[in-house]
Specification:
repeat, transport, Mannose-P-dolichol utilization defect 1 protein homolog, MannP-dilichol_defect-1, PQ-loop_rpt
Length: 230
């Protein structure tokens, strides 16, 4: 086996190992402070769905786990973050949200069962392209929420930096391991860009300034209203 393939595989496993702790700092902050301040429910939900969809895509395509395994781990951890938001944020109707979660799990099982069949090839296209779209959409509400608040609340710089680093490494290993799969490359590049933006926001204004008024933004107000919808 060529050295490049071996190196890419080991880098892939290193990313998987890192994924085991990528969202733990975020989860720790939320549990420690018993708060979901500064976190967008929309972003957390789309984050979990995007990671899950990308895992399904790679499973159905038969790609080696060294090229995507961290996505499954991230999906689980992102779901935990979402559940913590539901627990710590007041005024949320849990019944509606848990029904949606059960529906997603049921649909996931159906996708994995039927997605490999010839008649369902279009599912692969959807699963391969949707993570890129959802990654962008999941980060945009969080980015605008940070901008409006003037601070990043309970967001963990470590979590987003590790996600940024993982996306960059994954872009490089995908070139070697997965035959330059275009959908995977675009997904990793998109993730790297948006995670870097959040990291820069955290370091530029990680805590609110006294007396600093939130910036008015109608679009963000809509997102926040959606997050707090009852």
């Amino acid at each position: 086996m060529p050295f490049a393939d071996v190196a890419a595989a080991w880098l892939g496993y290193a990313v998987i190992a890192g994924a085991c702790v990528v969202k733990l700092p975020q989860i720790y902050l939320m549990v420690k402070n018993r708060s979901a301040e500064g976190l967008s429910e929309t972003s957390a939900a789309l984050d979990a769905i995007a990671a899950s969809s990308f895992s399904y895509y790679n499973l159905l395509k038969g790609f080696p786990i060294s090229g995507w395994g961290e996505q499954g781990i991230v999906a689980v951890q992102a779901t935990v973050v979402l559940l913590l938001i539901w627990v710590y944020r007041e005024g949320i109707r849990l019944k509606r949200r848990f029904c949606a979660l059960v529906a997603w799990l049921a649909m996931s099982m159906l996708l994995l069962k039927e997605g490999h069949k010839e008649d369902y090839k279009y599912i692969l296209v959807i699963l391969g392209t949707s993570p890129t779209f959802m990654t962008a959409v999941s980060r945009i509400p969080q980015i605008f929420l940070n901008w409006q608040n003037g601070h990043t609340g309970q967001l963990s710089a470590i979590t987003f930096f590790l996600q940024f680093l993982g996306s960059v490494v994954r872009f490089l290993t995908t070139l070697q391991i997965m035959g330059k799969d275009v959908l995977s490359l675009v997904s990793h590049a998109t993730g790297a860009i948006f995670n870097l933006i959040v990291v820069l926001q955290i370091y530029s204004h990680s805590t609110p300034s006294d007396g600093r008024a939130a910036r008015p933004c109608k679009a963000v107000a809509i997102v926040m209203a959606t997050d707090k919808e009852v």
